[in-house]
Specification:
Length: 218
Amino acid sequence: MDEHTGADRMLSMRPATPADQAGLTAMIQARSDWMKDKQLPNWHSWGKHVHELASNCTRHPSAMWVLTGHDDRILGCTTILRTAAPWTWTTTEAADSAYYLSGTVTDPAERHRKLGAVIAHWVVDRAAREGISRVRRDCSSPALAEYYQQQNFQLIRQVSAREGHTSYALERKATRIPELASWVVSEISTPERSEKPRTLLLPPTKRTVGTAQCLSRS
């Protein structure tokens, strides 16, 4: 993470609201276009779901968060779930106190600021402050799994899924990161624990979910 100093560099994490939908759509579309330009795998199939992912600010406002700059421009987003993906985590693990990161997307124009890592560190710090023991995430890309390990997430297992796909389960112990306070401010609210099965951000296929999560590499 780079140094963030001055009002123009200050970042904010806050709950998403329905009013954010247009800004989220623009930011996620920019990431989709960037993927297309780079000819990254599955960019076409993922790009069709830009509006659906952005609309989570209206369907799941208590779980979706946005990262903004000093002018409130949306620079990134993530969704913090309290339920585990059943194809990746065991029943015993699902009973743990954990946050699950899903659908993290950042503005490709700000890639030099490593905003994906900023969001991850913020969630790890927030979990520690709220008495949550660990932060987990899963993906279907080996390159993305390696990138998450660079953010101090530990690879727990690889799971062979249907249609030949592999899911990578990663977790990081929740811990305080005091230096975050100097360049990230946040409005705190606790994600609601749902007794319903985990709701996916995109149509519920492992191929689509994995593609969406690949967007967080920034």
